[in-house]
From TrEMBL:
It holds the Pfam family 3HCDH_N. This is 3-hydroxyacyl-CoA dehydrogenase. It is an enzyme of class 1 (oxidoreductase). GO terms for biological process: fatty acid beta-oxidation. It is found in: Peroxisome. Its EC number is 1.1.1.35. Gene3D superfamilies: 1.10.1040.50, 2-enoyl-CoA Hydratase, Chain A, domain 1, NAD(P)-binding Rossmann-like Domain. Pathway: Lipid metabolism; fatty acid beta-oxidation. It comes from Sagittula marina. Keywords: Fatty acid metabolism, Isomerase, Lipid degradation, Lipid metabolism, Lyase, Multifunctional enzyme, NAD, Oxidoreductase, Peroxisome. The lineage of its organism: Bacteria, Pseudomonadati, Pseudomonadota, Alphaproteobacteria, Rhodobacterales. It catalyses: a (3S)-3-hydroxyacyl-CoA + NAD(+) = a 3-oxoacyl-CoA + NADH + H(+). In the N-terminal section; belongs to the enoyl-CoA hydratase/isomerase family. Residues 472-565, 597-682 form the 3-hydroxyacyl-CoA dehydrogenase C-terminal domain.
């Protein structure tokens, strides 16, 4: 096998080129290749200076993540970086694109660093539950001081080439071709007679309590249960307190301890899922249709959000409303959204973006658009009316999409003469902010329409998950069940506030009742009303929640719900207690611990998710994990509910479910897929692998 690392000599300059597509990850062959290239350079009498280059778009994409969790193979990356640093002649890292994680550490192992404008230097390790493990935390503060290292490493952040020059991370900034510029720079260094300059030999600024205290306070608040950001701070502290060689050992110890954590496993699971989720076998080789313009029907919060998302992606939007006044209101909402995007730094200029928005009251204006997304009132007859009109005006080959969050998309498609062109695009509110897009695909939809929806999601910078047709699709169907578990726990003795606290302690940003207050308790009430005609007599109704609705306690917007509000700050609303007591009647009461609450909540989530996968609504367990991560605030460091379930053991979870089913057989019906996996001794991860 040829090495991914080439060694060439031009005159007195050795050029070491790493070519390991797609991202120049530092897998075993690259590490060995770099090691050998440095040996060769050391022994090469002709070469007086060496340049390390990365071929392709990146300098180096970091450690090879697919090797994590497997037995490590020598040479290890820290040793490779030290080997570069210990070279007997000067080595330059010439960085033209992203130098990430281990890639940045290789650059720090070199004696001189040149960057081409457009390059980036970053330490994303905490996003994988790790910290720099190849000397980054020890070398960077020696070049830049502690401040920039504490800004970057706990945050998983990066700096541009210009910023890197400012903070002293690099020595030289150039423009143009990296190979040419590196040769010029190398010749200049030779002419100046420079020698090796080992970062590890430089002094590190002394420990500064204020800087570390401030960083720890910030990250204790921000990390919300994640261990890596605080560990990154510990590693930088080690640089300030220990001699270099010992600091390197301490960094390694911290890195390896994180490698063993479930958080690392969860975040790497999430990293690969982000990439697998849009790879569907049925779409392989299917070309999407071109989308150059979009129509949006309905300019309420959802429609305006969708229009904003499309405008932010540079797509011209025609928005249809029923009258001029509503159209103006929609325009005002979109203008507000764009102004906020400018404030958040997501957009340069709202005014020029708004020139791409047309608001109309006549469907005829949609005759030319490539895609229309309906976001009107959630009522089947209203949707039928809209789709009949769309069918009449839209050009052949256009895509007709509905943003319904639960209605039967197959039935909506049947209102048109072209069901193959109809698909569900379920955005989450606010649509221009939330990352998740559920692509709801009825059996009648043409594959290229599904491919078009995935291509659109990419353009809108959304994470798209394919879902089948059922009430609530993947996310809201699972949500309805774990919300149901929370209501049942209230009847069984837990208070809404205990439940919220336990769920937050698990890592979600909000508990279900706080969430209800934020969204408006009228939404839950309306959903219950809608489902009432089909409700199974064995199901329970949260009568206290109905009473709260009738009292006009709709949550934040009315100043009270499960909490009473002063501004956004809520305190438990004691007035809810008697309503709950009444609903409990003489039911036996349990003394719930936070762990018991978490267990039931999560078991309900996983059990319903297993039904969703078993029925083919989600293609794979990983689609559920991605949905919950991007649409429902599930903590990334836990990987997703299915990954969590694998980690606690499916058999134990099933046993619990069967146990609870003795009291409540209707709610705790084990998912057939869960029973099957336990019987076969398999996991959700095995199912993901099988579908790869
Ligand atoms: N190790 C192994 N594989 C990696 C990798 C790494 N460090 N970085 C990316 N890949 C793989 C991806 O899984 C993907 O594989 P696939 O095509 O089989 O799905 C492929 O490389 C392309 O990556 P993708 O993310 O789709 O490309 P991109 O151009 O959008 O982004 C990066 C490139 C490097 C910015 C992005 O992949 C990234 O952030 N990678 C992680 C970098 C990192 O954290 N490094 C530190 C490790 S400690």
């Amino acid at each position: 096998m040829t090495s991914p690392v080439r060694y060439d000599v031009t005159g007195e300059i050795a050029v070491i080129t790493i070519a390991n597509p797609p991202v120049n990850a530092l897998g075993h062959a690259v590490r060995q290749g770099l090691w050998d290239a440095i040996d060769r350079f050391d022994a090469d009498a002709q070469a007086r200076i060496a340049i390390i280059l990365g071929e392709g778009a990146l300098f180096l994409g970091g450690a090879d993540i697919s090797e994590f969790g497997k037995p490590p193979k020598e040479p290890h990356l820290p040793d490779v970086c030290t080997h570069i640093e210990r070279a007997s002649k000067p080595v330059i890292a010439a960085v033209h694109g992203p130098a990430l994680g281990g890639g940045c550490e290789v650059a720090l192992g070199a004696h001189y660093r040149l960057a081409i404008k457009g390059a980036r230097f970053g330490f994303p390790e905490v996003q994988l539950g790790l910290i720099p493990g190849a000397g980054g935390s020890q070398r960077m503060p020696r070049l830049t001081g502690v401040g920039p290292a504490l800004d970057m490493m706990p945050a998983g952040g990066s700096v541009t080439a210009d910023q890197a020059l400012d903070i002293g991370l690099i020595d030289h900034l150039a423009e143009g071709d990296v190979h040419e510029q590196a040769m010029i720079y190398a010749k200049g260094l030779l002419a100046d007679g420079v020698d090796v300059r080992r970062v590890g030999d430089l002094p590190c600024p002394a420990y500064d309590a204020d800087a570390f205290d401030a960083a720890r306070t910030l990250w204790t608040r921000k990390a919300r249960g994640e261990v890596a950001p605080l560990t990154a701070i510990d590693a930088v502290e080690a640089a300030t307190r220990l001699p270099f060689d010992e600091g390197i050992k301490e960094e390694r110890r911290l890195f390896l301890s994180l490698m063993e954590t479930p958080q690392r496993a969860g975040m790497i699971h999430a990293f690969f899922n982000d990439r697998k989720v849009s790879k569907l076998p049925e779409l392989k080789g299917v070309a999407p249709r071109e989308i150059a313009s979009v129509g949006v029907i309905g300019g309420g919060t959802m429609g305006a959000g969708i229009a904003t998302a499309c405008l932010l992606a540079g797509l011209p939007v025609t928005l249809v409303e029923r009258d001029e006044a509503s159209a103006e209101k929609a325009r005002a909402t979109i203008t507000g959204n764009l102004d906020a995007a400018v404030k958040r730094g997501k957009l340069k200029d709202a005014e020029s973006t708004l020139t791409k928005l047309t608001t109309v009251t006549d469907y005829a204006a949609l005759s030319d658009v490539d895609l229309a997304i309906e976001a009107v009132f959630e009522d089947m007859s209203v949707k039928h009316d809209v789709f009949t009109k769309l069918d009449a005006v839209m050009k052949p080959g256009a895509v007709l999409a509905t943003n319904t969050s639960y209605l039967d998309v197959t039935e909506i498609a049947a209102a048109t003469s072209r069901p193959a062109d109809v698909i569900g695009l379920h955005f989450f509110s606010p649509a221009h902010v939330m990352k998740l897009l559920e692509i709801v695909v009825p059996d009648t939809t043409a594959p290229e329409v599904t491919a078009t929806a995935f291509a659109l999601a990419k353009r809108l910078k959304k994470t798209a998950v394919k879902a089948g047709v059922c009430d609530g699709f993947i996310g809201n169907r699972i949500l309805a069940t774990y919300r149901g578990a929370a209501d049942r726990m209230i009847l069984a003795g837990a208070s809404p506030w205990e439940i919220d606290a336990a769920i937050k302690a698990f890592g979600l940003p909000m508990g279900p009742f706080e969430m209800g207050d934020l969204a408006g308790l009228d939404i839950g009430y309306m959903t219950r009303q809608r489902k009432a005609p089909d409700r199974d007599p064995r199901d329970i109704v949260p009568t206290w929640a109905d009473a709260m609705y009738h009292n006009g306690w709709l949550g934040q917007k009315t100043g009270q719900g499960y909490y009473t509000y002063e501004g956004r700050k809520g305190t438990p609303n004691d007035a809810v207690k008697p309503l709950i007591d009444e609903a409990r009647g003489d039911r036996p009461q349990l003394d719930f611990t936070p762990e018991m609450i978490q267990r039931r909540y999560m078991a309900a989530m996983v059990n319903e998710a297993a039904k969703v996968v078993g029925e083919g609504i989600a293609a794979r367990p990983l689609d559920v994990d991605v949905t919950l991560l991007y649409g429902y605030g599930f903590p990334r460091w836990r990987g997703g509910p299915m990954h969590w379930a694998d980690s606690v053991g499916l058999d134990a979870l099933l046993n619990d479910i069967k146990d609870w089913a003795k009291d409540d057989p209707y709610f705790w019906q084990p998912a057939p897929l869960l029973e099957q996996l336990v019987a076969e001794g398999r996991t959700f991860s095995d199912l993901n692998e099988a579908s790869a």
